[in-house]
Amino acid sequence: MDSPNAVWLDAWHVNPSANKDYALLDGLRGIAILLVVACHLLYVNPLSSPILRFAVGIFSAGFWGVRVFFTLSGLLISWPFWKRKVKGATKAVPPGYGWRRFWKIYPPLVLSLLVLTPVYIILSHDWSYLGFAIRWLFGAPLIMPVNGKLNPVMWSLVVEAQFYIVLPLLFVCLKRVPARACLWIISLVFLIVPTGWRWFNLTRGVSFTLYPEINVHFPSLLDYFYFGILLGGLESMGILKKSWAKLGDYGFALLAMALLATSWLSLHPIIANTLQEEILGWFVKIASGFLLCYIADPQHPRSRLLSQPWLRWCGIISYEWYLFHQPAFLWARSIFGPSGGNLVKYAMIQGGSLMVGLIVGAVVYRYFSLPILKYGRAQNSRLTEPGLKKNPTASNA
To answer: Each residue of 345-377: pLDDT tens digit?
Structure first.
């Protein structure tokens, strides 16, 4: 840990088995989950004053936090691939790659379905939720649209899983390509192909949807991983310079601008919503890429700020909190009804559901996910790492 004050975090932290352990990346996860939670937490009467709607709209723009998660995944998941590529490993895919993704993602997802689905059924008297849960358990949303009524935040898991599958396939296909050439090829594939497909869909009036069905239109959202993949390769090849850390400050500024602009444009649209979202999405992509540049200097003042224990803790439990937070908000509003302008009732409903989601997420991580992660790390450590041999292509890195 970076500071004596973070000793308590040891009980929550699992050292990565295939990556460098940057504390600041936990902090960036913390910011991302706080943005997402804020997006779902606050709501406002559409008849309220424009100033109030603008202020709440800034928090509602926190949905961009999911895109920050994607960029982080681009860095963290591609890192061990680039490390092996640069060293000239005989096998392109790191040992235990698939199992690491499985132990991290699938058990908490299954638990959330087992816990949440019965509550959905009890509150709605709608047994169709059982069918939706079964589809998620068997991974059907990866290949076909699924109804968005059951915990719609799970849409991002579809995009993440698609990335987990596509990335190793590209590295295998480009196994004999020199590292630097591979860096530009893979990065550009993740930039151009998804962007081009999304734009083509938009010309036909087709776009990403959550309702009535979750449909991400593979591979149209994979470009959000682009900057993470690029920076992972640059860092592994020693191209990332310490001075690049200052770009992180521009990342914070761009992200703040995107939140403000999203709220303002929701009240005063200038162009078509799809085009506005596309432009704002590029602001968020660039901002997320700049924020990752803090890894170039872990001692940078903002890097150390991101390494604060409380923020890292939010990042460490972020996946479990993500899975459970939105149902808590929705059910609280359904059970207790509208606040009717009563600020005390509003604060109690929102604050209570916020704490319930946070506590459930923390408990699930600490006593369910963490033991599984440790088990997975132990199993992975027993795998024999294929020897790294001198590879002529690696000399170009």
So the answer is: 989 999 999 999 999 999 999 999 999 999 888
Amino acid identity for residue 225 in this structure: F
The sign of the dihedral angle between the CA atoms of 344, 350, 353, 357 is negative
Q: Cα–chain-centroid distance for residue 206?
A: 24
What amino acid occupies position 174? L
Question: CA 161, CA 253: separation in Å to the nearest integer?
Answer: 30
Give the count of beta carbons closer than 10 Å to the beta carbon of residue 294.
29
Q: Domain coordinates of the chain in residue numbers?
A: 4-396
Averages of pLDDT over each 10 residues, the chain, 397 residues: 67 74 92 97 85 94 97 96 93 93 96 97 95 96 93 96 98 95 96 97 92 94 97 95 96 97 95 92 97 96 95 97 95 87 89 96 97 85 53 36
Q: How far apart are CA 353 and CA 329, in angstroms?
A: 5
Answer yes or no: are the C-beta atoms of 293 and 231 closer than 8 Å.
yes
Identity of the residue numbered 32:
A
Radius of gyration, CA atoms only, the chain: 21
Encoded amino acid at 289, one letter: G
DSSP class of 387: P
The CA dihedral of 199, 204, 207, 211, to the nearest 10 degrees, is 180
Nearest to 302 by CA among 232, 242, 248: 248
Token pair 């992509």 in the structure block, residue = 285
- Measured between alpha carbons, how far is residue 72 from residues 79, 80, 130 in Å? 11, 14, 33
Q: Is the dihedral of CA 69, 74, 77, 79 positive or negative?
A: negative
How many Cβ atoms from other residues are within 10 Å of residue 371's Cβ? 11
* Residue 8 exposed, middle or buried by CB count within 10 Å (0-12, 13-18, 19+): exposed
Residues 121 and 205: their CA atoms lie apart, in Å, by 34
Q: Are 56 and 259 in contact (CB under 8 A)?
A: no
pLDDT digits (tens, 9 = 90+) for 246-283: 999 999 999 999 999 999 999 999 988 889 999 999 99
The amino acid present at 303, given as its one-letter code, is S
Q: What is the pTM of this model?
A: 0.93
